[in-house]
Write a structure and sequence with these properties.
12 strands, 587 residues, five-stranded parallel beta sheet, 20 helices, Rossmann fold, alpha/beta
């Protein structure tokens, strides 16, 4: 409150009376004048301070303390005057602002959320997340119909244990004692949502939120309808969702640019290019409203700005920090007998695939190890067999899968194996929130063309790396493990930040930067969406992009000879064919 300064009645000067004629009359006049001044000042004080004091600068009080969404979230109006009416926490006054500062703040409804960071006594300042209370048809109802989530795989067992799936047996001693589950690679929707329920800075006051989470199971939704359903059915839930969101008062604050959601599938499942029934997927990420939101997927598009890559789930979901420490130390001590290894199948129908050449090099090498996944090889679907091979290898080869990325990359790093990538879209431009931008610290890059043209020997290339450098790179990989795994959603790590924590903080940073840019009048007039992958590689403070050594990998030539959205969509379809052929045999 900014009380007005009061003038004391005793400060009014009373001039001495002159001696002589009229003394009594002058005395009475001065007395009446003093009495009048005192009366008016008392009246002004009562009006402005006593009656008006309760509303002075009230709209800029911050609420401290954590507000958890265990109760139904409270709708908050966009009016900043009404934002301060919550009874959930104790108001903390902000230092008085100048009139021009107040006028500036009133332009932006998100100012109150930005100012929470100024309260140093609040550990959640600048970190609050508001979660939309979606109708159950957008999430929980899908789990009740879990048998319909995949055409070939019974997803019911994989949605147990908060999305982690059934516990893994450790008969061969490959895993740790606790925290290991047969997790489906497409289960991030439910894992992330359950982790959000344990987030320590939830709020039911959206005006405090640094970002707003939409708990829609987008990946599970599209998985139900990819085969044998028309485009109207495939698009129905996405259209229903954006219609619901756009009617909410929270949406109008930034037009959805502070909203984010998660889909445990690759981006191409949500980027249907046409209204042809034969075209793949739905059009969620092409909807105008969705273009404003941030969608976290296990594989993002290099040419679009509204999706961001997050790690595939691995089999390890620790409940406490000690589980992570023990596993990391174990990976450091392992004897690794193979220089390199590869687990995968050839892609004879894809002329651009280099898997055939990689398999040939593995077979001909005395220091390489191959786990072939073709012809129904059951070991390739055994988490124990895969992890055991990775644990015995110095380097793990990670060519493109059916699309740019593979879950195998994260399984190998979890085993302390240094990944070898052949396309920058397999990791370097995908997981910029979770991996160092200097990829040489933790991986080896061999361009696909070098393998395709048989110009490079993988064994010779890796053999030239000194033991000291190998040890340094492996230590970097092991240190990255916490940020690449999803902790058990029913618990919370203390020291380590897992993939969920890293992702949420990155979203908050993104929204906060956008809000500050709006206030400061910064615009991205020169932003080219097709170069989105380049912007993700920029260092702090950089805004401009130019020619890049990886341009050939992401070119979209009109003659159709390079990578394109069309070929990526075809890759998405192929991944489903391979799921049908290689559905998990984990019991």
């Amino acid at each position: 409150m900014n009380p007005m300064r009061r003038r004391s009645p005793t400060s009014v000067p009373v001039e001495p009376m002159e001696k002589g004629t009229g003394k009594n009359q002058n005395t009475r006049i001065c007395f009446l004048a003093s009495l009048s001044v005192f009366f008016w000042m008392l009246l002004l004080y009562f009006h402005f301070v006593v009656l008006g004091g309760s509303t002075v600068n009230e709209s800029f009080n911050l609420q401290a303390g954590r507000v958890y969404s265990k109760v139904k979230p409270t709708l908050v109006t966009n009016d900043l005057q009404r934002d301060s009416q919550s009874t959930e926490s104790t108001p903390i006054p902000v230092a008085p602002a100048k009139n021009n500062q107040i006028n500036e703040a009133e332009k932006y409804p998100f100012m109150r959320a930005l100012r929470t960071v100024e309260n140093k006594s609040d550990p959640c300042g600048g970190k609050y997340i508001y979660v939309h209370d979606l109708p159950s048809r957008f999430n929980e109802d899908m789990l009740k119909e879990c048998r319909s989530l995949s055409r070939w795989t019974n997803m019911c067992k994989f949605t147990t244990n908060a999305g982690l799936g059934p516990p893994l047996e450790n008969a061969e001693g490959v895993f740790g004692d606790t925290g290991w589950y047969a997790t489906n690679q497409f289960a991030v929707d439910v894992i992330f949502n359950n982790r959000m329920k344990q987030y320590e800075c939830l709020t039911n006051d959206s005006s405090l939120a640094a970002a707003i989470f939409v708990p829609f199971y987008a990946g599970f939704d599209i998985a139900r309808y990819l085969w044998g359903f028309n485009i109207s059915r495939r698009d129905a839930a996405s259209l229903d969702l954006v219609d619901w969101l756009m009617k909410r008062p929270e949406w109008s604050i930034m037009g959805g640019k502070d909203h984010f959601l998660v889909a445990g599938r690759i981006t191409w499942d949500f980027r249907r290019l046409s209204e042809e029934e034969s075209d793949w997927g739905n059009k969620l990420l092409f909807l105008p409203a969705a273009k404003n939101m941030s969608m976290l997927v296990v594989e993002s598009s290099p040419w679009n700005a509204n999706d961001f890559g997050i790690p595939y789930p691995t089999y390890f979901h620790p409940a406490k920090d000690a589980d992570v420490f023990i596993w990391q130390e174990r990976m450091r001590r392992l004897k690794r007998e193979f220089l390199f290894s590869f687990a995968g199948a050839p892609r004879p129908d894809n002329p651009k695939s280099i898997r055939g050449q990689i398999i040939d090099q593995c077979r001909s090498s005395k220091v390489g190890k191959l786990l072939e996944c073709d012809f129904g090889e059951s070991k390739c679907h055994s988490p124990s067999s895969i992890m055991h091979m990775f644990q015995r290898s110095l380097f793990c080869l990670q060519p493109q899968g059916d699309s740019y990325t593979r879950r195998s990359a994260f399984d190998s790093m979890l085993a302390g194996c240094i990944p070898v990538f052949f396309h920058p879209g397999s990791a370097y431009t995908q997981y910029t929130w979770h991996l160092p931008k200097d990829y040489t610290r933790y991986s080896v890059f061999i361009p696909e063309d070098d393998i395709r043209k048989r110009n490079v020997s993988i064994e010779e290339t890796l053999g030239r790396i000194t033991p000291e450098q190998v040890k340094k790179m492996r230590e970097e990989v092991i240190s990255l493990i916490p940020s690449l795994i999803y902790a058990d959603p029913r618990s919370k790590l203390g020291i380590f930040r897992d993939a969920f924590d890293v992702s949420v903080q990155a979203v908050i940073d993104k929204v906060t930067k956008l809000r500050k840019d709006i206030i400061e009048g910064h615009t991205d007039d020169n932003f080219i969406e097709e170069n989105s992958w380049k912007y993700a590689l920029l260092e702090e403070g950089q805004r401009e992009v130019g020619a890049h050594e990886w341009d050939p990998f992401f070119s979209k030539p009109k003659d159709g000879n390079g990578d394109s959205v069309d070929t990526s969509a075809e890759a998405a379809k192929n991944s489903w064919h391979n799921e049908q052929r290689h559905q998990s045999s984990i019991k």
